[in-house]
From TrEMBL:
Domain HTH tetR-type intervals: 3-63
PROSITE patterns: HTH_TETR_2 (PS50977)
Organism: Streptomyces amritsarensis
Protein name: TetR family transcriptional regulator
Keyword tRNA processing: no
Keywords, comma-separated and alphabetical: DNA-binding, Transcription, Transcription regulation
DNA-binding region: 26-45
Transmembrane segments: none
A Pfam family it matches: TetR_N
């Protein structure tokens, strides 16, 4: 019963942020959404901020698990972008990226929430880094592009595009289009023969030395 109640509170906290926004989050609104008494929030988590921090980690674990198998099946950077577009649409419709944006903003004034949000993003970054490491190995970019840095840039841009889309949908669309052009360039590099790939690597090495 205790574990079930905690799950209700975690899910209730996330639903409250989705449906009412971070400004309306309180023990009363979370308890009402979860269908439990307010006192259980403090019994299980100690404070509303601690509940939100736990909910952030819980939500990230749920979302990453949802996409893990699909990420493992990706075979190229182009497929990764197509997946990112589809995932962005799914997550936006469900309100999850907006929640992350609100938690990032709220974390400016809450160290516990900031740490939890960073940990939640870290789960996404870990998955993305593994995928990028695998996919870049099939291109001449292996050894020149930093998968760890790219994973962090991707996670940050994912949230940024979501926030940007709210005020400039066309601009957000163009941002995705620009990423698609880069993916198409990567696809061309993947299709080069061994000699051409070696020439590209040689050119990249020369560029990094200058």
């Amino acid at each position: 019963m205790s574990a079930a109640t905690k799950d209700k509170l975690l899910e209730g906290a996330l639903r409250t942020v989705v449906e009412q926004g971070i400004a309306k989050v309180s023990a009363r609104t979370i308890a009402a959404t979860a269908g439990v008494g307010q006192g259980l929030i403090f019994y299980h988590f100690g404070s509303v901020d601690e509940l939100l921090a736990a909910a952030c980690r819980y939500g990230a674990e749920q979302r990453v698990a949802r996409y893990r198998d699909r990420l493992a099946e990706l075979g190229s950077l182009t497929e990764l972008l197509e997946f990112a577009r589809a995932m962005h649409a799914e997550e936006r419709a469900a309100g999850h990226v907006a929640v992350l944006g609100q938690l990032l903003a709220a974390g400016q004034n809450s160290p516990a929430l900031a740490a939890a949000t960073a940990a939640g993003l870290g789960l996404w970054i870990e998955e993305l880094e593994a995928v990028l490491t695998r996919l870049l190995a099939a291109t001449p970019l292996e050894g020149f592009a930093d998968p760890a840095g790219l994973a962090r840039a991707t996670a940050a841009s994912f949230v940024g595009i979501e926030l940007y889309e709210a005020v400039d949908p066309q601009g957000a669309g163009r941002a995705f289009d620009a990423l698609e052009q880069l993916a198409q360039l990567a696809a061309v590099l993947e299709g080069l023969g061994p000699l051409s790939q070696r020439a590209v690597r040689h050119g990249l090495r020369r560029g990094t030395r200058t």
